[in-house]
Amino acid sequence: MFLKNRWYVAAWDHEVDRQPMGRTICGEPIVLYRKFDRSIAALQDACPHRLLPLSMGIKEGDNLRCRYHGMLFSPDGAVLEMPIKTERPNQGACARSYPVVERHRLIWVWIGEAAQADPALIPDFWPCSHPDWTFDGGYYPIKCDYRLVIDNLMDLTHETYTHQGSIGQPELMEAPIHTEVRGEEVFVTRWMPGVNAPPFWRDALKKEGPVDRWQICQYIAPSSILIDVGVAPIGAGATIANHDQGVRGMVIDALTPETETSTHYFWGMARNFDIRDQGFTERFKAQQGRVFAEDVEVLEAQQRSIEANPTMKLRAFSIDSGGVRSRLLLERLIKAQAAPSLEAAE
C-alpha cells in the first residue's frame, strides 16, 4: 500500500539534531542525525549484527556506534570497527543508508532504490521558501491509514461540522466543486462569492462584511496536499485564478505513512500577510494546531470504527470526488510499480 521510489517527509528541520532520532517511514525504521556540518545522515535503524536500533547508539564525531557490541558506522553506513577491534571491518555488514534532502524546512527521505533518488522530484512547496511569504507548522502522529487523511483534506465540506467554531460555514456544503486530474496530481476547486467570513478569516482580514472565499486543494502523489485558501472583500477583483487581493494562505500537509494504520502528519500554513509579525505567527500556528487536532480526533475514531466493522466498506458520494480521484491515482501508481516485479517473476 506504499508507493516506493518517492520522497517522504521524515521530520521538521528542528526535530533532528546531533543525537540519533528514530522514525519509521513506510514500514522502514530509520535513524536520523546531524553531522558537524549540519547535513543529515539517514541509516536503517537496526545494527546488522544483532539488530539493536541504532537510534539507541552512541555518537562519536560524525559516526554512530551500536550500544550493544560496539560496531562503529560512518554516516553513509560503512563499517569502521567490528565488535573485536582487531578484526577487519566486514563491509558485508554495513548499515543501509538513505538519500536525504533538507528543503522547505522539512527533511525528506527517499524510500526505494537509492540510485533513482532525484531531488527535483520533491514536491514543490514553493510558499514555504518564498521571500514574500512566511511559514511554520507542527506535527501530529495519527493512528490511522494515511489514505484517510488524504480523503479528509481533499473533501473540505467536513469543515462545516468538524470545525464549526473556526473555519467552517454552511456555504461549504452549498458551493459547487470542480475536480480535475492532471498527471500525478488532483485538484478540487471551490469558489464562494459574497459569503460572510468565518471567525478565522474575518480576524485575518481585520474587517467585517461579506467576502469572496476560495479553496483549491492540490493532491500530489503519493501523500502531499497543498490547499490554497483565503478571502477577499467583495469588489476587490479576486477570482479563482487570481486572488492575492485579500488575505491568502497555503495549507501545507505532508502525510508520511508510518505503518498501514499509523501516519506522520506534518502540517503548516504559509501566508502572504503579516509575514514579519512573529507573535501572530505563533498564535496562528496554535490556532491551526487546534483545528487539526479536531481532525485527528475524527480520523482516529474513523480508523477504530473501520477495524470494528470489517464487513462494511467506505461509501463515496459526490462530495468525495477529490478523495476518490486521489485514491484511484495512488492505486494506479502502486500497481504500476509492482508490474516490473511481476514480469520478472514470470
Average pLDDT:
92
Number of domains: 2
CATH superfamily of the largest domain: Naphthalene 1,2-dioxygenase Alpha Subunit, Chain A, domain 1
* Portion in helices: 10-25%
CATH class of the largest domain equals Alpha Beta
Q: Terminal Cα separation, in Å?
A: 22 Å
Structural class: alpha+beta
The coarse silhouette is globular
**CATH architecture label name of the largest domain:** Alpha-Beta Complex
Strand content: 25-35%
Mind summarizing the main beta sheet? 7 strands, antiparallel
CATH topology-level name of the largest domain? Naphthalene 1,2-dioxygenase Alpha Subunit, Chain A, domain 1
* Strand order of the biggest β-sheet: 11-17-16-15-14-13-12
Textual characterization of the structure:
By secondary structure, the chain is an alpha+beta fold. It folds into 2 domains: 6-120, Rieske Iron-sulfur Protein (3-layer Sandwich), CATH 2.102.10.10; 126-334, Naphthalene 1,2-dioxygenase Alpha Subunit, Chain A, domain 1 (Alpha-Beta Complex), CATH 3.90.380. It has 6 helices and 17 strands. The strands form 4 sheets. It has a 7-stranded antiparallel β-sheet. Strands 5-6-7-8 form a 4-stranded antiparallel β-sheet, with no helix packed on it. A hairpin with a 5-residue loop joins strand 7 and strand 8. Helix 1 runs antiparallel to helix 6 (321-345). The protein is globular and about 80 Å long. The model has no long low-confidence stretch (mean pLDDT 92).
